[in-house]
Amino acid sequence: MTTYHAELAWLPDGPAADVLIEVDGGRFSAVAPGVSPSAGAPRLAGLTLPGLANAHSHAFHRALRGRVQGRGTFWSWRDMMYQVAALLTPDSYRALARAVYAEMALAGITCVGEFHYLHHNTGGTRYADPNEMSAALVEAAAEAGIRITLLDTCYLTSTVDGKPLAGVQERFGDGDAARWAERVSAFTPPAHARVGAAIHSVRAVPAEQIPTVVEWAAARGAPLHVHLSEQRAENTACLAHHRRTPTELLADAGALGPLTTAVHATHLSDSDRTELGDTDTAVCLCPTTERDLADGIGPGRALADTGSPLCLGSDSHAVIDIFEEARAVEMDERLRTERRGHFSANELARAATVAGHAALGWADAGAIAVGQRADLVTVRLDTVRTAGTGPHGAFFAATAADVAHVIVDGREIVHDGQHLHLDVARALEDAIV
Question: Does the model's pTM come out above 0.90?
């Protein structure tokens, strides 16, 4: 058993002072606030949070950070992304993902949802092990010290009206949803990983194929994620071809519900938002990517008010900083409404922790409570950014650079702001060519 003493800890009811935390077998065995420091218990100075969850990641997009900043749109950025996807091998992808996940660990992220669609070799040829790319990502997470939910993504067509995959997109496809299900069913993850399903989008999975993916996830109680209405062009094409919005199409296919997370959900009608809320479908907002790609501002407050749990993702990794994602949810609402104060610190903390883990299928993570997985993230409150803010103010002021210590499943991964197993900056430089 290991004991820690947190100066401040964010418990399920909010911040508390002088919290004694006991860890046994990778889980919290005791959590007691108002306890004086004791000899021998490491002192966690600052604010200690539950582990942060990054509910939406495309690890290889990290290679584009800062390199695609000219004029254009999401679609011109996507062309550059495809160029990176064309070059990756299982070995090079493992090295890149390991560095990216280690960067996440430095930022206090203890679990990532990897929206994974780079399945095959060039031309769509399967590797000898059809899940070799999946194994590379899962191994990368282990080496970086974090948990992963591999959201194995079905990707079959290039447009809403069913045009076939071409060029690098051929690496993404399994032919049809049945062959996708057969491949992903053959992959058995180790203890630090879980497998969920993803429908890339209504562009990439024909309407008649969607139920196969839904049924695969439902049979296993696995999370199901889907890119939804990230671009207005997707809505226009879906309405023209199906005479329904993407949300309506997914609803008709049985794809919405409490195990489903809609990613982005940026351009929704009022009835779309109601449909998501009424079905308890979660929504993953990725504000730093949505602004970097000029996608637009998602209706975060309206979605929450209609019943959709909100979680957060760094998506294309324009930055990896869940604090920035969280406060951007509030700041984007301010820009939209020209009013302040839409989300409390407690709501943002929930989106960053317990809601994100739930969306990734880890119901036993995201809270500092007895029986939960022992994930701890200590944020310094004495930096030039956080000094004087207090625990609630930290969510509006702290950055990933203020993370001092990270513990995942009771194992220390980051100490005094340094990853204990990797030189992360060097690993990123070596992996990004």
Answer: yes
